[in-house]
Fold this sequence. Notes:
Blueprint: E1 2-4, E2 16-29, E3 32-38, E4 43-49, H1 50-53, H2 55-63, E5 69-78, E6 86-97, H3 111-116, H4 118-121, H5 125-147, E7 151-152, E8 158-159, E9 171-174, E10 177-181, H6 186-196, E11 198-206, E12 219-228, H7 232-253, H8 255-260, H9 265-268, E13 277-279, H10 280-289, H11 303-310, E14 317-320, E15 343-348, E16 353-361, H12 365-374, H13 383-386, E17 396-402, H14 403-411
Parallel strand pairs: 1-2, 4-6, 7-11, 13-14
Antiparallel strand pairs: 2-3, 2-5, 3-4, 5-6, 8-10, 9-10, 11-12, 12-17, 14-15, 15-16, 16-17
Helix pairs in contact: 5-7, 5-14
Amino acid sequence: MKKITIAEMAKYNGQTVKLGAWVSNKRSSGKIAFLQLRDGSGFVQAVVVKAEVGDELFATAKSLTQETSLYVTGEVKEDERSSFGYELAVTGIEVIHEAKDFPITPKEHGTEFLMDNRHLWLRSRKQHAIMKIRNEIIRATYEFFNDNGFVKVDPPILTGSAPEGTSELFATKYFDEDAYLSQSGQLYMEAAAMALGKVFSFGPTFRAEKSKTRRHLIEFWMIEPEMAFMEHAESLKVQEQYVAHLVQSVLKNCQLELERLERDTTKLEKIKAPFPRITYDDAIKWLNDNGFDDIKWGEDFGAPHETAIAESYEMPVFIINYPIGIKPFYMQPHPDRDDVVLCADMIAPEGYGEIIGGSERIYDYDLMKQRIQEHNLDESAYAWYLELSKYGAVPHSGFGLGLERTVAWISGAEHVRESIPFPRLLNRLYP
Length: 431
């Protein structure tokens, strides 16, 4: 007897196979029982016909409880009514473990209850679909950067300084020294780019930001490429090609998941490079002309501002050339202006906010030293970083993409907490 997964069923049409699965739901109609099975690779309906299996096996099928684990044998059959395309005609059931009183029943539950039971909520169809889309985005990320000559480099999670120069850090003791959980691997990736040309990292980052919005997490994952001999305009092209690749890969490889989430794929199908660009100056003017009198030049955008701008476009939009005063110390000044820097934020459509922040980096030693001093940073902690502009400095650019916001946008999830397996939120460290 061939043991297969649900995802492999198409290859075994007409054959009798064995599945290891859990019962996600069931219903019966007279002398037929319908079992909704899942095995991690997918979901399928198994049909148990009393006249074909006998009284004992049919009684077993009818008694199965939600999340009971079992081995099921049966014949794989095409089913045009199913979005999956196949069903299993059951000939045998072997119960492994009977689950009793599974807390997440097929009805509406409150958010806090579901978050308290996140370890079980992951089993639901919707959460399963979001995790599969997350996995596809990760796969496509490696594909894009590997195909374009990047080398993956892993920066440290424990650092001795703050790349963004902020106080939103988780501090800890590193033996007799102060250390912080990384809020970005960027500075280390710049060092790696000076050695390997084009690099990217993919790892966890931490922000001690006391925010409760649907866009924020305390712990999240970042993809951070850095590219030597690359100016800002060239970096924007890489960013839009990368994001377009992610979207098209999900459309191609996650059709069932997008359908399960009832995602409007017509909006995703439009996501192709190049993306529109708008300057910070023009964005401020547009906002002021459209009823947003609360923001003035020199201030950073809030969620309502980003959403309003994004709604004017059908694709992600770059907002470029922010004021120097609201951006980190390492960004290259604009060649024709001393009040803005060569940077961009990519704002996702449909109200999902910033998914990428990037810039050209300063590579002039004296200017970098001046910026560090102006931001009141500990120069000794950044001594190694300063040396990057001392020994063979070159123009270079990079960016960071937040994985969870990107997953939320592409999957259409209402809240970013659904786009990571076990979210860390303000006042939530369980489970």
